[in-house]
Please model this.
Amino acid sequence: MSKALTLTVVFRANSLNYGEGIANISELKKIHRGNGDVLTFASRQSLRYDIVRLGNEWFGWNLQTVDKTKGTLQFREDISIAESVEMDLFGYLKTGQKSQKRAAVARLSHAVSLEPYRNDMEFLNNMGLAERIDETPNLANIEQHESFYSYTVTIDLDKVGVDQGNKGKVVELSEGEKVTRVTQLLDILKLLNRNIRGRQESLAPLFVVGGVYPVANPFFLGRVMLEPKSKSWNINTKALKEAGQTTFGGQSIGDYTRVGYVSGVFGNEAQFEQVATGRVGTVENFFAALKEEVESYYGVSVQ
Model:
């Protein structure tokens, strides 16, 4: 029976992704909602970049996989998923006389802010450098947004380590290698960070909900919302509980669901038990449980 892993993360960070900007103003990437709210976001491409960056730094993921073919930057013809965790998890397209492609096995959403942008700006100049040579400093303005953000990742476990699009040759990795790749990705998501404009922002979960399910579907995407209070922030547990009542194959999604959270961040921690009765704990507990389920699915234990 095929299975898939999905989890939705809430983290807190500052100004994660800038666009082209206008004149000397650096603009954040934004989404405009019908109710008038403006939300900032970190694109799925930026999340993918940092996941692969950390995969290389922490686990030695191979990045020597790119070439320029007829003016197009793409993955090399002679590299398969056996040599590239990145190509395995996030797919590829190789153009040529006969194009080769692989759909992403791990699919990411944008990380969208859960709090609206209120036009906060920061004024910058390089006075320190200018004074050294008695020159006029350059001026700049950058948009700033401190917020909770949420994103979702869904991993189709039965497609990890299997590729039929590599020049017609089937490539299938060992069960142990599949487990290693998925658990490495989980370790990266648990400690994800982003380097931007001299800062290192933590994208590590403060709240995470998900589990291993009999179908690949982002059950909690768009279901995580905040309820702002005067002195605290609450997670809207009603929306999550209703998502857990969804059934597939006669089985309630809530029966597979787990919740992990960091104590002291949200004001309604006691209500989390309503989302995943008996399966609520720390973020570390959450990821440890998912690793055990992944090992059980593949029938291999990797220490």
